[in-house]
Amino acid sequence: MPGRLILRRPSPTTVSFTVSNASRHTSTAAKALFYLQILLRVLALVCVLLLDIAKFRHSLFLQDGSWIRWTTMWSSSMGSSVCRVADAYSSPVVVLASTVVIYGVFRKGYTEESLLVIRGLGIQTSTSSQTYLSKASTRFIPTTQIQDIVIHEAFKGFEVRFYLAVIVKGESEVVVVFPKLLPNRQILEEVWRGSRRCLYDSKS
Amino acid sequence: MPYNIAMVSDFFFPQPGGIESHIYQLSTKLIDRGHKVIIITHAYKGRTGVRYLTNGLKVYHVPFFVIYRETTMPTVFSFFPIFRNIVIREQIQIVHGHASLSSFCHEAILHARTMGIRTVFTDHSLFGFADAASILTNKLLKFILSDVDHVICVSHTCKENTVLRASLDPLMVSVIPNAVVAENFHPSEPPSVPRNMGPTDIITIVVISRLFYNKGTDLLIAAIPRILASHPNVRFIIAGNGPKAIDLEQMLERNVLQDKVEMLGSVRHEEVRDVMVRGHIYLHPSLTEAFGTVLVEAASCGLYVVCTRVGGIPEVLPQHMTTFAKPEEDDLVLATGKAIAALRSNKVRTDRFHDQVKMMYSWTDVAHRTERVYNGISGDISPEEFYGYYPGQDWEAGRDRVRSFALIDRLKRYYGCGVWAGKLFCLCVVIDFLLYVFLEMWFPRANIDMARSWPRKLNQKENNRLAIASKNDRLGPAS
């Protein structure tokens, strides 16, 4: 899905460009789908956790805990059916399957990358993480270290793509802004103009 | 009408050489004439990605596997996805391939025809017909050229060779020679003063060539001791490097000629002139040569040229600038002796060479003639005008020469290449076509970003017109 640009300008000397390929949830159906997705994720997580606990009930969850009574739980009708399913598979299979499902539950369905420009201070690039559990990776470059901001082309896979790059003083490699999404030229040109105006143009 | 042209070749800067500078000079002159030109070549060490040269000449250094003497692996189809991407984003209308040993160029021409783009091929070299490597190359050339729109050769000998190798229609082959930038190759002294040579003055012979077998280095190794033995006041300067350099050095050591022969190693192209002006005679012992740009450069520097009568060399320079030899040891020694004698008797006006060469060769002229070829294949001038009109002949000029892009017509042309080869080539073309259809679905055209063109510099005429127009504007309201 091609990325779209979101421009925020909280003050005249600050501007933030965000490129994201997340869907916008404008229509009612899309909103409903979005909440349904959250519900499904929670449900899947609960199921997997329950299955895992059932699998390892003999080693870890045998005695009654302080607030959950495991023994009564395993003897109930739902508990016994979960136990039957868990016992049908060997433990490596269960561990592997639950890892995959947990990863799927916490995986983000979109990528969001942003460039924050603050005059007199510097710029910060950030790329959203793949899962909800980890933080976004960011990089801050102070104004004194910015040599230039350029748009250039490079080979990527079977294509030639445009990219926006910050040339940092004293570093042999440039810092690529929006490295994962690599938005199209029009977006890049808008970001390039906006960030240069914010960084260097004293009038605005 | 301005075109968007892609020059494709394995050979480009930073590697030095004749083809490389040909592509560069032709491209810059075409840009001056208002066209948009990009160059597609493979990645060299330390030079990858997209680069810009002077005048907004854009170079794509495509990362690719190099096998032998900077030639890429012939993989037929693997270049197609990236080539298609470049062609679409640059809106290319004409693909111009260079050099018959470059697999990059062959593949590009094949894919360009599949994509429905006009193609031109420039042949820079001569080939034999006998040995295995030549037979293979010739078959490959026949494959590619059976569907190309037009071929350019650098000399008439080269044209003859190419027409025979690829069984082409001779009218589809044009001859456009190389040229030199005469300003970069001017003689050291002011040109009006004739050089007077005494009988004991030192005469320096310059040799600048890559030291490979086909450049006649063996001939040179055999001839140098004999020339030096019979002419004591002669010195040699040899520039260039290659596998034969070691043989040359052994010869110097065997005959103790180190004080008379100076070996410079490889020189950069911009230093060639400085080496040339140190000498009086340029010796070119090449065994095969399609054109020999270096001869023009030498003559432009005011050197008398001794060369072998092979390939396209006899076409390059007029009689009074050269002494020809057969490509054998005895004749080369004899011809060099003749040249030395001619210089000693002050019969040769080498001081006039520069201006004469300047009149004969210019890149602007080459670009002009190449542009006519582009016009011809794009249909901007009629086939009758382009291929010539022959009244009374029973064929039409443009009947078979304007090549349609229909797959069936292309297959017909390839099928005629040979009993087995024809079928193999047809298979390749069909696969190429299917690959194209697949790529159109997988990487749709709409998703490819168009590249911006370099802002075009106005030429002199347009500049003047604009200046006049703005002056009129300024005068208008006041009057």
From TrEMBL, chain A:
Superkingdom classification of source: Eukaryota
One of the Pfam families matching this protein, by short name: PIG-H
Residue stretches making up the Phosphatidylinositol N-acetylglucosaminyltransferase subunit H conserved domain: 114-179
Protein name: Phosphatidylinositol N-acetylglucosaminyltransferase
Family: Belongs to the PIGH family.
Gene Ontology, cellular component aspect: glycosylphosphatidylinositol-N-acetylglucosaminyltransferase (GPI-GnT) complex
Taxonomic source organism: Aspergillus heteromorphus CBS 117.55
InterPro entries: PIG-H (IPR044215), PIGH-H_dom (IPR019328)
PANTHER family per the UniProt record, alphabetical: PHOSPHATIDYLINOSITOL N-ACETYLGLUCOSAMINYLTRANSFERASE SUBUNIT H
Keywords annotated in UniProt: Glycosyltransferase, Membrane, Transferase, Transmembrane, Transmembrane helix
One MF term in the entry's GO annotations: glycosyltransferase activity
Pathway linked to the protein: Glycolipid biosynthesis; glycosylphosphatidylinositol-anchor biosynthesis
Segments crossing the lipid bilayer: 32-51
BP GO terms, sorted: GPI anchor biosynthetic process
TrEMBL record, chain B:
Keyword field: Glycosyltransferase, GPI-anchor biosynthesis, Membrane, Transferase, Transmembrane, Transmembrane helix
Top-level taxon: Eukaryota
GO molecular function, one term: phosphatidylinositol N-acetylglucosaminyltransferase activity
E.C. number(s) listed in UniProt: 2.4.1.198
Pathway recorded for this protein: Glycolipid biosynthesis; glycosylphosphatidylinositol-anchor biosynthesis
GO cellular component: glycosylphosphatidylinositol-N-acetylglucosaminyltransferase (GPI-GnT) complex
One Pfam assignment: PIGA
High-level lineage: Eukaryota, Fungi, Dikarya, Ascomycota, Pezizomycotina
Cross-referenced PANTHER family: N-ACETYLGLUCOSAMINYL-PHOSPHATIDYLINOSITOL BIOSYNTHETIC PROTEIN, PHOSPHATIDYLINOSITOL N-ACETYLGLUCOSAMINYLTRANSFERASE SUBUNIT A
SUPFAM superfamilies in alphabetical order: UDP-Glycosyltransferase/glycogen phosphorylase
Domain PIGA GPI anchor biosynthesis: 42-131
Protein name: Phosphatidylinositol N-acetylglucosaminyltransferase GPI3 subunit
Species of origin: Aspergillus heteromorphus CBS 117.55
GO biological process: GPI anchor biosynthetic process
Residue stretches making up the Glycosyl transferase family domain: 203-330
CDD domains, sorted: GT4_PIG-A-like (cd03796)
Transmembrane segments: 420-443
Role summary: Catalytic subunit in the complex catalyzing the transfer of N-acetylglucosamine from UDP-N-acetylglucosamine to phosphatidylinositol, the first step of GPI biosynthesis.
